[in-house]
Amino acid sequence: MKDFDEKDDDLRKDIDEALEELEMEEVEGKEQEPSSEEDVQMEQIAEPEIPCIPLRGLSIFPRTITHFDIGREKSIKALEYAMKNGKELFVVSQIDENILIPTEKDYYRVGTLVKVKQMLKIQGDSVRVLVDGRYRAVLKEITREEPFLMARIEEAEIIPAQIEEPEVEAFMRAALDHFDEYLEYNTGIKDSAYDVVAAIEEPGLFADTLAMQLNVKISAKQEVLEAFDEKERLAIVNRIIAGENHILSLEREIHEKVQESIKNNQKEYFLREQMRAIQSELGVDEDAGEEADRWLEAMESLNLSEKTAEKVKKEIKKFTRMSPTSAESGVIRNYVETILDLPWNKESKTNADIKKAEKILNEDHYGLEKVKERVLEYLAVIHLAKGIKGPILCLVGPPGVGKTSIARSIARATGREFVRMSLGGVRDEAEIRGHRRTYIGAIPGRVISAMRDAGANNPVFLFDEIDKIGADFKGDPASALLEVLDPEQNKEFTDHFLEVPFDLSKVMFVTTANTTETIPRPLLDRMEVIQVSGYTEEEKVKIAQKYLIPKQIKAHGLKGKNFSITEKALRDLINYYTRESGVRNLEREIGSLCRKVVRQKVAKKGNDFKMIPSSLEKYLGKRRYRYDIIEGESEVGVVTGMAWTQVGGDTLSIETARLPGSGKIQMTGQLGDVMQESAKAAISYIRSIADEYELEKDFYKNYDLHVHVPEGAVPKDGPSAGVTMFTSVISALTEIPVRKDVAMTGEITLRGKVLPVGGIKEKVLAAHRAGIRTILLPKDNEADVDEIPAGVRRQLKFVFLTRAQEALDYALSREQDNKL
User: Fold this and answer.
1) Exposed (0-12), middle (13-18) or buried (19+): which is 787, by Cβ within 10 Å?
2) What's the pTM value of the predicted model, to 2 decimals?
């Protein structure tokens, strides 16, 4: 039987094991118990009062043997009293089984007089009791509640039914049929239960036994217990079983409908389909009309084009004819809500005050004059033209120079919303154009999603890292961007998910890149490229003083008086602890200094800290870079060249060694094909002018030349090292050292001409940071020097070359004591 008086579910397991291992205490010995209701009625209660035990969630019927567990203190005391005084108990069910301490009003008025047959004390304070139901009894009153319940009861007067009566027999047959059907739905009940019930011929016992087998509420079983007329009792049992069968048949039907739906759809829709089946049985269908009306009302306020409005109305009409829980309705709902959320005709009020915009740009960034000038030009044109297609700017420069942050400042200066989309690693065209709605889980592209988030149709839209966009079998995102970034096409940009055009012509697009070499040419052609070069030392000092130091002080919870750094210490930090075109690592090092100060302050080892040059080594360790490389000695065959990389300019050494041999030329350092060809062209030109420098006539036969570019793990390529390699080989063959304070760049031809190269500004700034003071450049690059900050130009000497031999006059040291 089900246990409703136990304290813990784990206790039942221990009880069942105990019943198998321990012998039950025989309470009655070998005494024969009465087996029929007539014998029961012959016994009389010895005392006018009898101990009473309330049962939680359990009903006990006469002439049935069952067991239950007792855990409440009063119930145990009542049982102990019964064991010493006739072993009889009155058991009655609680109306609410959740009440732990019931009173008289919490009991039903009809219960069963039982006789204790066996008992067993089990783990804890609980007791398991085996009882034999004797007869129905009516509770007259509770005579005592302490220390346990005592009750005065009265035996119920039973109105017997005769099986010979046709109506009684019909009730019993119908009940058996209902019970047979009930067993089909409840596979947990043993089939032998039917045979046990069918073998009973007495109507009252038949009804009681049948009620005991049913898994129904206590209130239903109590209704059977309170039926003193056996014929009425049979009718009640029939009604209860028939009702249970109807409910079980509905549950099975719903389950079958759900199972059938699962076979045709994915399992993840199980709960949704089950709810649909339940709603269908209840006759309740969700009305989508109200939601559709709300959509139509919202659409009217958007003033959509006729084509777009017709498309949306068609989708809304389709939605009203579909089941709200179907997968297709979810896609349509997402589509309509996306359409309604887009800013079709909503614009931000732009700032046309050029002076105010210029002030904001200068507040946020130091330098970047070209970018600021272009933004101010755009604002001026808007002020006069009152309508212009948004420009598409491409900011190209090394990391850390402020390309991404300037886009935010442009939005702030123009009074527009700002949205950003990173294109690094994007390989799927659907990221730009969205997924077609035929796919499960289709969503709009990130362009449309960003416009929805912006809430206006004229934001500043940043495509970050456009040079790192990729392509694979899923499509080419760069090709999808052509429509977005083309002013002639983006007025009717069509997302695959929306399937209707959206106007992007009012958007101000800004893109960033480290290099233009990896940007597809058609895409690059649609953008206005603005070079953002690296910062000079003076610019870095100003940026640190004006922006980086205050930012880090605030981020670390300090105040201005708690942390300061002298200009000399700041310059040492820039030169000896960072080597970059931007200021990202500089900001990181300033943050490191702030953390050191915070730790000292918390440890109460000081309050205000001022960083001087000697403090840097204490807090940041030894210097990581050498700045004044010109202090080194001049060397034979070692020339300083200048290179351009994606992260800015850099200097590199080119070394040449002359070795006895058979004229072989060996080149190492991961040199690309173009760079190797430059070296071969330089050597061929040297052979043609060997007499001018008193070189051995057959040096190319008697010696091997080994050209090496250090940092061999880094690939290198390009033609701009031609002059540098020419100078290095000449130095190795003549054994004349090369000056350390000279750096050069330029492409060389077989006739010795020096051709122009790119990246002059970045290369010169890198050489300046390395301590170079004489720069050799191609004559055709003379105009590029104007882009170099005036403060840097004043510290450098520029020599412009038309022929490679001119470089030797400035690079080779002819002092005899430096010869090797």
Assistant:
1) middle
2) 0.55
